[in-house]
Amino acid sequence: MYSQEDMKPKQQEVGDLFVTDSIMTVKLLPSRKSASKPIRWFQAGAVTDPRAATRDIAELIGRLQGQQRVVRGLTLMTERGTEIDLEGTGLAKVVALAGFEVLN
After folding, report:
1. Residue 3 placed within a domain
2. Is residue 1 part of a domain?
3. Residue 13, beta-bridge partner list
4. Which of 8, 40, 69, 76 could form a disulfide with 65 if both were Cys (CB 3.0 to 4.6 A apart)?
5. CA distance 30 to 71
6. Is 3 helix (H, G, I), strand (E, B) or coil?
7. Is 50 inside any structural domain?
8. To 10 degrees, the CA torsion angle through 79, 44, 51, 12?
9. pLDDT digits (tens, 9 = 90+) for 78-99
10. Taking CA 55 as the corner, what is the angle to CA 16 and CA 62, rounded to the nearest 5 degrees?
11. How many structural domains compose the chain?
């Protein structure tokens, strides 16, 4: 068993989630770790399968954060830039369902 003194505190991180019609990319800060995953649930600027989106987001971030990091929030972006309504795309809802705070 490990004592309380042996356990390192987890590093708090935030991430950028960039979503296009075919790929999702996450970059964590300050560690600069990043990963991508092909997706099929984001078509025509909207989430078409919320269950698959929630699962894919949680899986990708879980793989990146490992045991020494905790991701608390995500900044959302799409290929359409800043003029897109993120609530209308459904991204904010699936990120919240995956267990992360939406930072923008």
Report:
1. no
2. no
3. 71
4. 69
5. 11
6. coil
7. yes
8. 10
9. 988 767 888 888 999 999 999 9
10. 55
11. 1
Q: Distances in Å between the alpha carbon of 38 and those of 10, 11, 20, 25, 69?
A: 29, 27, 9, 9, 24
Peptide bond into 50 cis (omega under 30): no
Distance CA 76, CA 102 (A): 7
Residue type, 88: G
Query: b vs e for 67-86, b when ≥16 Cβ sit within 10 Å of the residue's Cβ?
Result: eebebeebebbbeeeeebeb
pLDDT at position 84 is 80
CATH of the domain at 58: 3.30.420.40
User: Side chain identity at 47, as an amino acid letter?
Assistant: V
Quickly tell me which residue has 């042996």 as its tokens.
6
- Residue 2 belongs to some domain of the structure: no
What is the tens place of the pLDDT at every residue in 32-78? 999 999 999 999 889 999 999 999 999 999 999 888 889 989 999 99
